[in-house]
Amino acid sequence: MCSNKIWIFGVLQCFSTAFICSLTFHATKLTLTQVVAFEDLSSGMGTAAMIAFMAWLTNTRFTATQYALFSSLASFGRTFISGFSGKMVEHTSYFQFFLLCALLAIPGLLLLFKMKKIEGIEISI
Length: 125
Hints:
The protein has helices at residues 3-19, 22-25, 29-57, 63-74, 76-80, 85-91, 94-114. By secondary structure, the protein is mainly alpha-helical.
């Protein structure tokens, strides 16, 4: 498993979320197209790396159960916390909301350094 890709794709997802803030300053059809294309591309790469990583973590004897648990855990934040995002936008602007979302990716990226302790995973910048 090439964990460098997890790091790179995570950084790209962080930047793509922050890139949405640019629509506040320069909202044109071209900018919107660029933002959506970059977001879709980085999201797809990050999802592929996450699926590969979860598949790598699973034990072959318990593949179905472990993968189901990993994928449920991975989607927990997306499904549970997203319900509160509307309230967050009511109290802030879209710029602040997407900037906060980009900043919240940083702790997750820093956790990748902790994973160096897991045997077989090397993460370098």
